[in-house]
Amino acid sequence: MHNKELDQTLVLIKPDALKNSLTGYVLSQLSEFHTGLRFAGTKVVNVSRMLAEEHYAEHRGKVFYPSLIEYIRGYLHYPGKPEKQRVIAIVYQGPNAVDKVREIVGPTNPHLAREQKPGCIRSLGTLVPLTDDKGEVVGERMDNLIHASATPAEAEREIKLWFRPADIPPYMRIYTTRQSGGFFYYKDDKLLTAHEPGSVCLLAPGDVTWESDLNALELISRKQPAPCTLRTVAAKYLVNEKGED
Ligand code: CDP
Ligand code: MG
Predict the structure, then answer these.
(1) What is the predicted pLDDT for the residue at 1?
(2) What is the rounded distance in angstroms from the CA atom of residue 232 to the CA atom of residue 236?
(3) Is 39 helix (H, G, I), strand (E, B) or coil?
(4) Percent of the chain with pLDDT over 90
(5) Buried-state track 27-62, b at ≥16 Cβ within 10 A, e below 16
(6) 182 pLDDT exceeds 80?
């Protein structure tokens, strides 16, 4: 049965917050004293294109999407400085985690955040005009310092995308896990079950994975329709792999 005490949500401290030294501020706003939530996992992540595109898949095709991908990858706030291009990913756990964090984070648009909820974290963000090749303004990007899952279903998808089970202490895991019985390798957008030169091992026998990831990999390896793409699963196993674009 679902234990409300153990609800989880994903927070990302985005590159604009890191650049402006707002990490401590964000952490204290979201502290257990204020929210009743605890850390279940934390990670410093150099965000690959694959991970950025999977995380923001629902926004593909929108005018701000290319800029959003560059933003979350740290390319806009730390151009030419790969050692600074990262986000801090955090899983918070506790009663009503998703809504509690969204409440403190505030509206997506920093201008609206300032109007509607002065004092929320995103009220410290900014809007950046987006221009086309001719310099015409075609839209705006919202640099809003922080990501927070919007619904419990989104939290599950996002936590499984950014974190492996082993990143979360066993008694804090709320999604079903399963041990892999075989090898799974990734190379050039393909899934392999035996090693080939240049492939990366995603899973070995005995590795504990999210059950949904393993089910998907087994279906993909049998060339059957799977509920998510190979990239959705692979992105997490390639987190912080050197050379991963
Ligand atoms: O982050 P949130 O769930 O509040 O908003 P979203 O609609 O899922 O959008 C994801 C992110 O895309 C936002 O946090 C903004 O950084 C960015 N965005 C933007 O730049 N311009 C928009 N019109 C909408 C979103
Ligand atoms: Mg969203």
Answers:
(1) 54
(2) 8
(3) strand
(4) 95
(5) eebbeeeebebebbbbbebbbbebbbbbbbeeeeee
(6) yes
Q: Which of 55, 62, 142, 154 to mutate to test the pocket of ligand 1 (most atoms within 8 A of CB)?
A: 142
- Which 8-state DSSP code applies to residue 81? -
CATH code of the domain containing 69: 3.30.70.141
Helix (H, G, I), strand (E, B) or coil at 163: coil
Is the CB of residue 111 less than 8 Å from the CB of residue 124?
A: no
Render pLDDT for 200-236 as a digit per residue (tens, 0 to 9): 999 999 999 999 999 999 999 999 999 999 999 999 9
Regarding whether 204 and 120 lie in a shared domain, the answer is no
Instruction: Calculate the dihedral angle through the C-alpha atoms of 170, 173, 176, 180, rounding to the nearest 10 degrees.
Output: -40
Sheet with 8-13, strands from edge to edge, namely 38-45, 87-93, 8-13, 146-148
The mean per-residue pLDDT over the stretch 28-38 comes to 97
Residues pairing with 90 in the sheet = 11, 42
Residue 9 pairs in a beta bridge with 92
Q: Is the domain of 144 the same as that of 228?
A: no
If one residue of 47, 53, 68, 130 were mutated to test the ligand 1 pocket, choosing by the most ligand atoms within 8 A of its CB, it would be 68
162/182 same-domain check = no
CA of 227 to the centre of ligand 1 (A): 25
Tokens of 80: 């030419």
Domain around 153: 4-166
- Compute, in angstroms, the gap from residue 142 CA to the centroid of ligand 1: 6
Residue 112 is predicted with a pLDDT of 98
pTM recorded for the entire structure: 0.96
